[in-house]
Automatic annotation (TrEMBL):
Keywords: Cytoplasm, Metal-binding, Nucleus, Zinc, Zinc-finger. It comes from the Eukaryota. It comes from Pisum sativum (Garden pea). This is C2H2-type domain-containing protein. The keyword Magnesium does not apply. Residues 1-28 are annotated as: Disordered. Residues 1-19 have a biased composition (Basic and acidic residues). GO terms for cellular component: cytoplasm; nucleus. Signal peptide: none annotated. Residues 35-63 form the C2H2-type domain. It is found in: Cytoplasm; Nucleus. GO terms for molecular function: zinc ion binding. Pfam families: zf-met.
Length: 68
């Protein structure tokens, strides 16, 4: 009887050990943020957000040209 119980417990331990770690949201966010505003150093995900950022936060400045 103990053999079956040990087997089930070993399977549970292995499943927990082999389960992928979810990682942190901060790491995932950092991977998605690729563009930085040169004026205030805010990180943005795409050029459209950069244009919107310039329109709202730096209205007297022109957004930098897209260099992809």
């Amino acid at each position: 009887m103990t053999r079956g119980k040990q087997k089930i417990e070993a399977q549970k331990r292995n499943a927990e050990k082999n389960q992928k770690s979810k990682g942190s949201q901060i790491e995932a966010r950092a991977g998605g943020l690729k563009i930085t505003c040169p004026i205030c150093k805010v990180q943005l995900a795409n050029p459209n957000q950069l244009n919107d950022h310039y329109a709202s936060k730096h209205p007297k400045e022109k957004p930098p040209a897209e260099s992809s």
